[in-house]
Design goal:
This protein has 1 helix and 9 strands. By secondary structure, it is mainly beta. The longest helix has 9 residues. The two termini are 21 Å apart.
């Protein structure tokens, strides 16, 4: 077992939402950075989320499974309500790491005005 951390990141914007938010609405941006450190049974995922220029307060953020043009089910709740600078950690399975490597997971930040999501960005290895 290697103690090497795997870096991950996601750049968030409204244009990545499904359906994409119009440019008049999609002023917000964000970023999630994190590390996955191997444990005996999976990975400890430590994350840090920042965002700005949302239409209102972030009601919650989570990681979801899905392709670039489809919405998918929740994989991991991150925070709610959220403030920029939110951080935490959770257990990630080897299968979830494989999804990150294949581009199968994304971060979604929701607001009251956009309950399905105002910011979205695909998780990828750094």
């Amino acid at each position: 077992m290697s103690a090497t951390a795997i870096g991950v990141r996601a750049s968030l914007s409204g244009s990545h939402e499904v359906p994409a938010l119009s440019s008049k609405v999609a002023r917000g941006t964000g970023r999630l950075v994190g590390t996955l450190k191997q444990t005996k049974t999976g990975y400890q995922f430590n994350w840090y989320l920042t965002f700005r220029n949302l239409s209102g307060a972030a009601t919650f953020a989570n990681i979801e499974r899905g392709s670039a043009k489809k919405r998918g089910p929740n994989v991991q709740f991150l925070c709610g309500p959220c403030k920029s600078g939110a951080h935490g950690s959770f257990y990630a399975s080897p299968g979830e790491l494989a999804l990150i490597q294949k581009g199968g997971l994304y971060v979604n930040v929701r607001t009251k005005r956009h309950p399905a999501g105002e910011l979205r960005g695909r998780l990828a290895k750094k």
